[in-house]
Amino acid sequence: MGSAVKKLVSGEFLFKEGDAPDAMYVVKSGRFEVIKTKGSGEIKLAELGPGAMVGEMSFFDNKPRSASVRASKDGEVIVLPYKALHTQFSQFPEWTKAIMRTVNEHLRKANQRIKELEQATGEDDIIFPPHTITKLMSIFAFVTEKFGKPSEHGHEINSSIIRKYTIQVFQEPTHKMNKMIEVLAAQNLLKTESTGDGNQKVTVFNVSFFFEFVEWYNRYLFQKEEERATIEEKELRILNGLIHFAKKQNTQTSDGTTKLSLTDVQNDSMRELGDVIRIDDVNTLIEKKVIGDKFMENNQVFVTLDVQALEKIAPFWTLIYALKKITRKNLS
Q: By residue range, what is the domain housing residue 12?
């Protein structure tokens, strides 16, 4: 039939996604992985061993390869050229050929439908949806408080303990927990140090922060939409600037809030923060009742704000947006 044996070394491609097809293959020895490109990365769909067949779908419709096949271990494949196969296939009964073509077409349509659904929902790119955040953060907080050792810097815990409870007890993927810890370290909420055995010592500076975050975020998620005060990422810059100046001025009112001169904020923000915060920049925060209404006094514009409350939620929102930026494209 014109078949031949082809040798491949580990890491070598048998064919790549999008290549024009000319043969199907039977794995004779070694191991081969079927992979698809996803963004800047790839997804492993299957691993093939001796006796497995690959590349058969294009035999019927001559469409480009729908996935790549790469040797994960040195091996050999038997090459079955389409030209020789078509000669034999032409001798099959028509009903047999019709069944095989129909099955192949159904597989093609199923694969295409799955791809369309992925693109429509975008869920495949979401690593930290809201309730995943609260669940992973709860696991992290409970395990750290239960098994972490108090130290002068907070609580110290080995990453192997976090990993064990994440996957074995709560049955959550450890790669997500690892990425979350990486984000928390970038937010200066903890630090990690290698222990030299493939694990890390995780020092959590304030474990109460995580319990408070979960309580606050869970309550927020279950509020009615019209009752939520959602702070957009672009508003965080304004909010943090207001907190900075409110703590500096420290002018409290009778109800315990701080009276802040927006006129001074506008005049001093470039010098102190490197960015101008204009008086009207606070309008959306006022509309959401995050801060009080504007009022005039001595030819200056003022607002009132609860600095203590805002100092608590600003880091919460900063953390949420940091986690939302993690997708499968930048997940490592």
A: 4-121
